């Protein structure tokens, strides 16, 4: 192995204990030590501000709809537009992270979408309203950079926790905005004395400004990896500047990425849909006033404070004992229960019962999101960004699909839509049964004997690339991910020589058929 | 010991339901008031600027004493069916507690059988829509007991079109544009700084 040019790199002291990739093996919430914990705080705060901006319109809709003369159809379309932009933006963001690093990728996106929020203040028709919501929604792609950054900074044993906390506290913005925006609006009305139709416009400057601040924070205070930024590491030869088409190819040919994209659509996608429709549901079905409906809607999003991080921590906890199989099983069970609760939510006819079921439902569906990103960091090392992006994008696709199928027009009443959505969640979660890691196993099958983590992660590099030493990081990651075997798998790994990229897919088919007769662990 | 407690709770719960069950319905009200509304500018009004003059009086064709319980009147600006289409937050519902047709209060006055007139400047927070004017009469307990409106039953004649303010000001437009340019400009700055950092580390 090459010795790095700067030997003091390896002697560098970090505030937290680190592994061989210099990723932190501990997570200390109240520290802001560079680079690990600082990256955590920068990422969740900026992601939070993006969520606040994207969902800033719904709580102020009673005023906006009168100012811009919107119909229910206009509002529904704008809601769908707000979550559909991020579908492709998330995949693009994943690629950008792989190629340019999360620091540049996220600060760029945040600064490019901030104008959409500033310009929301001068929207003057249903069409312009739809456009500003559409472009603002692109900022939700910072989710991918958040998860990528955490996966780059934190070791496998705490990556679920780090991902869950940063994702959850970011998603919190969707709930917090239901409280923040009306407050800002009323402050503007009373203190500046503006009319309703001017006050909401001025209110939008607040989330826009915080978004901009977030980008500045990330750029000046953050760094891509524990050892430094991509640009410096690449120039110093520490990190190889990867090839876009290879990165992209390895992501889209990994079937696990597609499965997780689908299932994420039915936990996170459902969460976004509920963010858009729940206030209206309580207002119409139970005749609570708009203020109360807003508080109920906010509490759904606010559960993210502990439920998504809880999912991430649960994933890490299960992995300690049962390895990757524990992570997969927990994800499946929690998301299934979430689907069942969603089905029940539409069936309950009383206000108090509905609120209770909604709160329990929010905990399960958000925990499932956290659990999903306990698995994602392990699907690919080379194409971590694109896989994260695909999964994240899949989440938004789920949001678009569920809103278009169940909550548009008058085909289904809202309660029917909610129940049917619950059924769809349960059906789509079944595909988790098909996820199989040859080195760790799947839901029903154990790992293939003799297959190592190196086999899996190094199969993403060609012989020529390995010769040039581009695969160093994957090698280190393989070592560090040995923990995913759980307490049982303690055998010493044998490095094999399989190298072609499509081996992973071929291996899966071979294993799937032979595992019927093979040994279960 | 527990039984009286149970009775108390059920009484409280039931009384809540009872109150809502007895909400007044619009169809139970008689159209005992004659209402007319006019504006020197015709039927197109600008919010915040133009004025509407409303006149109302008791319809003498009803038996005298019908208005004996009338204590106050409330003048309201109500949405015409055209402006309620595809907007469930303006829906007409018979139960007056849930009815959302008349969301804008013009003025409340003590009841007089005749000689009533009020000139109102259309407020700045009225949205762009088609409206008619309705006057509700209330008794001493604030329960609606009669009404009148300046249009017919189908709510298609005598409507007023209000053109709302945009709420935009030149200062907001300029601020929006400036901040947006600043954001994009910052990004260009970031890329430049990053390039420079890269060049510097190359020479190290």
Instruction: Specify the oligomeric state.
Output: heterodimer
Classify the helix fraction of chain B into a percent range.
25-40%
Structural class of chain A: mainly alpha
Mean pLDDT of chain A: 85
For the secondary structure, the number of strands of chain A is: 2
Total of DSSP H or I helical runs spanning 4+ residues of chain B:
3
Sheet with the most strands: spatial strand order of chain A: 1-2
Question: What series of H and E elements makes up the topology of chain A?
Answer: HHHHHHHHHHHHHHHHHHEEHHHH
Gyration radius of chain B (Cα, Å) is 28 Å
Number of distinct beta strands of chain B: 9
For the largest interface in this structure, which chains are involved and how many residues does each contribute? A-B, 42 and 36 residues
Coarse morphology of chain A: globular
Task: Report the uncertain regions of chain A.
Answer: 1-11, 490-521
Distance between the termini of chain B: 87 Å
Overview of this structure, please?
The complex is a heterodimer of chains A (521) and B (204). Chain A has helices at residues 36-54, 57-67, 72-100, 102-120, 126-137, 142-153, 156-191, 196-203, 205-221, 230-235, 244-252, 255-265, 268-286, 290-302, 307-347, 351-375, 384-406, 414-429, 453-458, 463-467, 472-480, 503-514; strands spanning 436-437, 441-442. Chain A has a two-stranded antiparallel ribbon. Helix content of chain A is 69%, strand content 1%. The two termini of chain A are 34 Å apart. Residues 1-11 and 490-521 of chain A have low confidence and may be disordered. In chain A, a hairpin with a 3-residue loop joins strand 1 (436-437) and strand 2. By secondary structure, chain A is an all-alpha fold. In chain A, helix 4 packs antiparallel against helix 6 (142-153), helix 4 runs antiparallel to helix 9 and helix 6 packs antiparallel against helix 17 (384-406). Chain B is an alpha+beta fold and 204 residues long. In chain B, 28% of the residues lie in helices and 28% in strands. Chain B contains 3 helices and 9 strands. Chain B has helices spanning 2-21, 81-84, 170-203, and strands spanning 33-38, 44-46, 51-58, 72-79, 104-110, 116-121, 129-138, 144-149, 160-163. In chain B, the strands form 2 sheets. In chain B, strands 2, 4, 5, 7, 8 and 9 form a 6-stranded mixed beta sheet that branches. In chain B, strands 1-3-6 form a 3-stranded antiparallel beta sheet, with no helix packed on it. In chain B, strand 7 (129-138) and strand 8 form a beta hairpin. At the A-B interface, helix 2, helix 4, helix 8, helix 9 and helix 10 of A face helix 3 of B.
């Amino acid at each position: 192995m090459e010795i790095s040019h700067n030997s003091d790199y390896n002697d560098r002291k970090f505030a937290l204990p680190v592994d061989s990739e210099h990723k932190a093996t501990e997570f200390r919430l109240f520290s802001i030590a560079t680079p690990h914990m600082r990256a955590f705080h920068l990422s969740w705060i900026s992601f939070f501000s993006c969520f606040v901006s994207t969902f800033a319109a719904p709580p102020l809709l009673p005023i906006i709809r009168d100012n811009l003369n919107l119909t229910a159809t206009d509002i529904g379309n704008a809601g769908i537009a707000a979550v559909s932009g991020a579908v492709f933006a998330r995949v693009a963001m994943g690629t950008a992270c792989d190629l340019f690093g999360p620091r540049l990728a996220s600060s760029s996106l945040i600064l490019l979408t901030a104008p959409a929020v500033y310009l929301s203040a001068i929207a003057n028709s249903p069409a312009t309203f739809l456009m500003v919501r559409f472009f603002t929604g692109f900022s939700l792609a910072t989710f991918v950079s958040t998860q990528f950054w955490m996966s780059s900074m934190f070791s496998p044993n705490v990556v679920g926790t780090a991902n869950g906390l940063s994702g959850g506290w970011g998603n919190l913005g969707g709930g917090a905005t239901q409280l923040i925006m009306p407050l800002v609006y009323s402050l503007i009305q009373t203190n500046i004395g503006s009319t309703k139709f001017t006050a909401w416009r001025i209110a939008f400057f607040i989330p826009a400004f915080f978004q901009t601040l977030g980008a500045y924070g990330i750029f000046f205070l953050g760094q891509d990896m524990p050892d430094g930024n991509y640009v410096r590491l690449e120039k110093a030869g520490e990190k190889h500047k990867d090839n876009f088409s290879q990165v992209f190819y390895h992501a889209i040919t990994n079937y696990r990425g597609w499965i997780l994209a689908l299932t994420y659509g039915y936990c996170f996608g459902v969460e976004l849909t509920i963010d858009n429709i729940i206030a209206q549901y309580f207002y119409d079905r139970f005749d609570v006033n708009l203020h109360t409906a807003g508080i109920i809607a906010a509490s759904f999003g606010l559960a993210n404070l502990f439920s998504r991080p809880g999912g991430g921590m649960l994933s890490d906890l299960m992995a300690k004992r049962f390895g990757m199989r524990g992570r997969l099983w927990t994800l499946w069970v929690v998301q299934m229960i979430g689907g069942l609760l969603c089905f029940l939510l539409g069936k309950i006819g009383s206000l108090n019962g509905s609120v209770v079921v909604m709160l329990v439902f929010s905990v399960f569906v958000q925990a499932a999101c956290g659990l999903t990103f306990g698995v994602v960091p392990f699907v690919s090392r080379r194409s971590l960004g694109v896989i994260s992006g695909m999964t994240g994008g899949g989440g938004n696709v789920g949001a678009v699909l569920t809103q278009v199928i169940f909550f548009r027009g008058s085909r289904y009443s809202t309660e029917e839509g909610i129940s049917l959505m619950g059924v769809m969640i349960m059906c789509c979660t079944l595909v988790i049964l098909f996820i199989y890691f040859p080195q760790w196993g799947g839901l029903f099958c154990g790992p293939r004997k003799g297959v190592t983590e190196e086999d899996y992660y190094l199969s993403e590099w060609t012989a020529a690339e390995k010769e040039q030493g581009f695969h160093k990081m994957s090698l280190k990651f393989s070592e560090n991910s040995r923990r995913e075997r759980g307490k049982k798998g303690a055998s010493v790994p044998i490095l094999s020589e399989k190298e072609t990229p499509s081996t992973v897919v071929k291996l899966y088919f071979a294993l799937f058929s032979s595992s019927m007769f093979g040994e279960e662990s | 010991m527990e039984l009286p407690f149970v009775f108390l709770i059920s009484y409280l719960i039931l009384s809540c339901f009872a109150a809502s069950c007895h909400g007044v319905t619009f169809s139970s009200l008689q159209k005992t008031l004659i209402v007319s509304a006019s504006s020197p500018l015709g039927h197109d009004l600008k919010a915040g600027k133009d004025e509407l003059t409303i006149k109302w009086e008791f319809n003498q064709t009803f038996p005298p004493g019908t208005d004996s319980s009338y204590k106050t009147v409330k003048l309201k600006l109500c949405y015409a069916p055209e402006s309620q289409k595809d907007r469930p937050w303006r829906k007409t519902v018979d139960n007056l507690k849930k009815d959302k047709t008349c969301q804008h209060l013009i003025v409340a006055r003590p009841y007089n059988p005749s000689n009533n007139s009020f000139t109102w400047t259309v407020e700045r927070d009225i949205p762009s829509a088609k409206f008619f004017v309705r006057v509700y009469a209330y008794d001493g307990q604030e329960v609606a007991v009669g009404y009148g409106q300046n249009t017919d039953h189908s709510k298609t004649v005598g409507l007023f079109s209000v053109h709302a303010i945009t709420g935009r000001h030149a200062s907001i437009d300029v601020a929006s544009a400036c901040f947006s340019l600043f954001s994009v400009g910052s990004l260009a700055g970031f890329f430049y700084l990053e390039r420079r950092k890269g060049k510097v580390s190359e020479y190290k």
